[in-house]
Amino acid sequence: MMFKKLTVLTAVLLFIFHVHAQQPIALPKVEREFRAAWIASVANINWPSKPGLTTQQQQDEAIALLDMLKENHFNAVIFQVRPQADAFYKSELEPWSYFLTGVQGQAPSPYYDPLEFWINAAHERGMELHVWLNPYRAHHIAGGQPGELSVVKKHPELVYKLKQGYWWLDPSKKGTQDLSAEVVKDIVKRYDIDGVHFDDYFYPYAEYNGGEDFPDAASYAEYQNKGGRLSRGDWRREQVNIFVQRIYKTIKAEKKYVKFGISPFGVWRPGYPESIKGLDQYDKLYADAKLWLNEGWVDYFTPQLYWTVNNISQSFPVLLGWWASENTKDRHLWPGMNIGLGGGEKNSDEVINQIMISRGMLPKSPGAVHWSIGALTKHESLRNDLLKGPYKQEALVPASPWLDNKAPKDPKVEIEDRATDLYVKWNPADEKDNFKFIVYTNYGDKWNYTILNYKSRFLIVPKNISNGAIKTQVPLKSIAVTAVDRTGNESKLEIINVEDYRK
């Protein structure tokens, strides 16, 4: 009888051991979320603070903004480089921006290329840089007088002056589409950017022309004379649709990994969904943003959902849910959030609620773009609340598998013992396919990670860390190092037992 009991007990113990032996070891996993801020140059909204600063002043301001984003665990910037058919970079197509030097066509002195500077500084901090362009705005009311190099003077056949003082390119003109497409192609080809971004300015808002219709009667008459039968509204939308699709193809023909994003007005049409009211961008801006998302002509889509959660007519979660239902190609849906509602607890609570709602509704690819960096610099309380809350951990940008789903090769890792620390160093298997590195550390069965830029080749890791609660030392048990490519794919994770390297 005793023998049978022991046999049964042994069988149970063996079963329990087997089950536990089969449990998978918890592997480290990096958080994924797109965390970006818009940096507007038009009218010197964000950078530079005013035209005509010295080169050193401009660079100091840029570094301060990027350092602030890095410290608060942002991983992308959307930097405006073409505010009014001009350039914040060396261009043979368009003049230097008035908002940079105070004189359109005048380069910075001492000379430097601002876009190149921003790209390098962002990448050194492990952040993506997306160039933000306005495809149709020819001249802004804050942009001084159009110079001889302005498109207003060089191509008067492409532009109209609106009653509020803006000049606007005619989206239906082949010359307009060719110029803006060539500008995009030139930037993608020559600069190491991570994305191209358009905002909500397609056909202009009606108030720009004193409430009157866009003055393109001659262009529409020419279209009709050639046999065109679309209504004027459908014809305008078709011109924008053709251009958006062309830009997507142009970018991919140069560099497939460069993402294309658009941040349209947050409401497609009133009544979509039923409770929504407000501006009809389909009918007033001639932007069929739903179509672009439906067709997958973007890699990420950032509707400007600048309203609060409990705004019934333009509720943030109601609109986000509707746009998510239209995301039939499973592109990234990273809403634009207005973080400039004011400082203090109420604003922080609203912003954090919107981030958490987005994470809950879009768990496969969470993210947000914050309007604008000015609110982050102004409101220290907001920065602090984000950093101790939803942005406490660093995060990688979610992967874009439709662009590339092949993981990079894992780096070759070596470890050296250095008394109280371990010196972890690695060599990339393919430098061209590496954009970031991640060092995972396991102390007492608790994993953490550090995200490093593409230049990084080592990290000094302590052998022990203090457990403040009970004042003991927790030993380092294991390490892993992975590489991440430009589209967010991560290399194979090989865990290294550090006991083999401890003295």
Explain this structure.
The chain is α/β, with parallel strands linked by helices. The chain folds into 2 domains: 355 residues, Alpha-Beta Barrel (TIM Barrel), CATH 3.20.20; 89 residues, Immunoglobulins (Immunoglobulin-like), CATH 2.60.40.10. The chain is 32% helix and 20% strand. The chain has 14 helices and 20 strands. It has a 9-stranded parallel β-sheet. Strands 15, 16, 18, 19 and 20 form a 5-stranded antiparallel β-sheet that branches. Helix 2 runs parallel beside helix 4, helix 11 runs parallel beside helix 12 and helix 12 packs parallel to helix 14. The radius of gyration is 26 Å and the shape is globular. The N terminus is likely disordered.
Q: Tell me the CATH topology of the largest domain.
A: TIM Barrel
Strand arrangement, major sheet: 10-9-8-7-3-2-1-12-11
Q: Provide the low-confidence segments as ranges.
A: 1-24
- The SS-based structural class is alpha/beta
Number of strands: 20
On the 0 to 100 scale, the average pLDDT is 94
Describe the global form: globular
> Which range best describes the helical content: under 10%, 10-25%, 25-40%, 40-55%, 55-70% or over 70%?
25-40%
Largest sheet: 9 strands, parallel
Number of helices: 14
**Any idea what the CATH superfamily of the largest domain is called?**
Glycosidases
- Return the CATH class of the largest domain: Alpha Beta
Q: Architecture of the largest domain in CATH?
A: Alpha-Beta Barrel
Total number of domains: 2
Radius of gyration: 26 Å
Oligomer: single chain
Termini separation: 52 Å
Strand content: 15-25%
